[in-house]
């Protein structure tokens, strides 16, 4: 009996030791994983800090030479080394605004159609087609916009807009000038096509998360499809929808190659959205390899710093809006 008892004690001790070894191994792996994720976070912060520091240091000569007038000056003359960022800033904001005005309602309607109205056999092909738009390189959009879309706008759309709004207060100056084909309106259309997949995909995912009982209850009360979309689906998914819209806006603000092809690359500020213009990204892409002199290069880097600040402000506003919406939803 004593031998049996000793064997049982030995087995229990061995099992406890094996269990302790396994727990120590798991604890060590958990500590290693925690430290690895911490290093990844610090690496991201270090990279972001490095980018900001490089932009600030590179922008110092231009900011010292021009001061705050750099932001409100339209002139961009490399010959006389007189630079101002107003035209690129204006073009960036205008083209992004045009893109969002077009892409947001279209993307939301497509997402609702796919989740509520589209036949089952057609949902997958349409969803794949929309997602494929996100995979097309931006330079392809630029080439297509320059050789196909811009001539179409020049021949049909822009003359129609000019004739339609001629003499209308406010709108006549917005759609004034000769139909160049290229310009801020064309760039806005191209950006809208490029950000449409992001808005549509995110909106579709959040629309599918709406409990069916809510929509069925609204239909049971006699609501139309539009009323269900407006009063049930959108309020329930507003946080996700705003997140998708801000993601698309961030893409529109920083797009380079596609815009460079179709915007006209003119450092001017015009009240007409049909006129050629430029954006911050397009100006940097066009002129950085040709920049001669420290002041010219510093001015281009300062444009990059301004774009970074604009993007940061947009993201901060988005986070604030999402926080407010989450607080109201509680």
UniProtKB/TrEMBL annotation:
Q: Which residues cross the membrane?
A: 39-63, 83-114, 126-150, 180-199, 295-322
Q: Which domain of life is it from?
A: Bacteria
Protein's UniProt keywords contain Oxidoreductase: no
Q: Which residues form the ABC transmembrane type-1 domain?
A: 89-318
Question: Could you mention a single GO BP entry for this protein?
Answer: phosphate ion transport
Topological relation to the membrane, as annotated:
Multi-pass membrane protein
Q: Which InterPro entries would you find in this protein's record?
A: MetI-like, MetI-like_sf, Phosphate_PstC, Phosphate_Transport_Permease
**What Pfam families does this protein's entry cite?**
BPD_transp_1 (PF00528)
CDD domains, sorted: TM_PBP2
Task: List the GO molecular function terms.
Answer: phosphate transmembrane transporter activity
Q: What subcellular locations does the record give?
A: Cell inner membrane; Cell membrane
Alphabetic keyword roster: Cell inner membrane, Cell membrane, Membrane, Phosphate transport, Transmembrane, Transmembrane helix, Transport
Cellular compartments per GO CC: plasma membrane
Question: Hey, which family's this protein in?
Answer: Belongs to the binding-protein-dependent transport system permease family. CysTW subfamily.
Q: Briefly, what is this protein's role?
A: Part of the binding-protein-dependent transport system for phosphate; probably responsible for the translocation of the substrate across the membrane.
Protein name per the record = Phosphate transport system permease protein
Give the organism the record lists: Enhydrobacter aerosaccus
């Amino acid at each position: 009996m004593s031998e049996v008892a000793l064997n049982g004690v030995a087995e229990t001790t061995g099992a406890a030791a094996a269990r302790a070894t396994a727990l120590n191994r798991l604890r060590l792996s958990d500590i290693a994983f925690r430290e690895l994720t911490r290093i990844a976070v610090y690496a991201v912060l270090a990279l972001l800090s490095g980018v900001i520091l490089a932009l600030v240091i590179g922008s110092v000569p231009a900011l010292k030479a021009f001061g705050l007038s750099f932001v409100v000056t339209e002139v961009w003359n490399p010959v006389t080394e007189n630079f101002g960022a107003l035209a690129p800033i204006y073009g960036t904001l205008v083209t992004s605004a045009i893109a969002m005005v077009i892409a947001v309602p279209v993307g939301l309607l497509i997402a609702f159609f796919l989740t509520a109205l589209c036949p089952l056999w057609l949902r997958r092909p349409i969803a794949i087609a929309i997602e494929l738009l996100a995979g097309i390189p931006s330079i392809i959009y630029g080439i297509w916009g320059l050789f196909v879309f811009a001539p179409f706008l020049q021949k049909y759309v822009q003359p129609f807009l000019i004739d339609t709004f001629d003499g209308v207060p406010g709108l006549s100056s917005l759609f004034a000038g000769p139909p160049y084909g290229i310009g801020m309106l064309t760039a806005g259309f191209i950006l809208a096509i490029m950000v449409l997949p992001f808005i549509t995909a995110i909106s579709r995912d959040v629309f599918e998360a709406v409990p069916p009982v809510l929509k069925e209850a609204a239909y049971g009360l006699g609501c139309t499809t539009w009323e269900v979309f407006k009063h049930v689906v959108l309020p329930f998914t507003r946080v996700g929808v705003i997140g998708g819209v801000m993601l698309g806006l961030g893409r529109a603000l920083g797009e380079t190659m596609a815009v460079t092809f179709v915007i006209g690359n003119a450092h001017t500020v015009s009240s007409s959205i049909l006129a050629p213009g430029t954006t911050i990204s397009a100006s940097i892409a066009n002129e950085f390899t040709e920049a001669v002199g420290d002041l010219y290069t510093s001015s281009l880097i300062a444009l990059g710093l301004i774009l970074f600040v604009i993007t940061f402000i947009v993201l901060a506003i988005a986070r604030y809006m999402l926080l407010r919406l989450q607080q109201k939803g509680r």
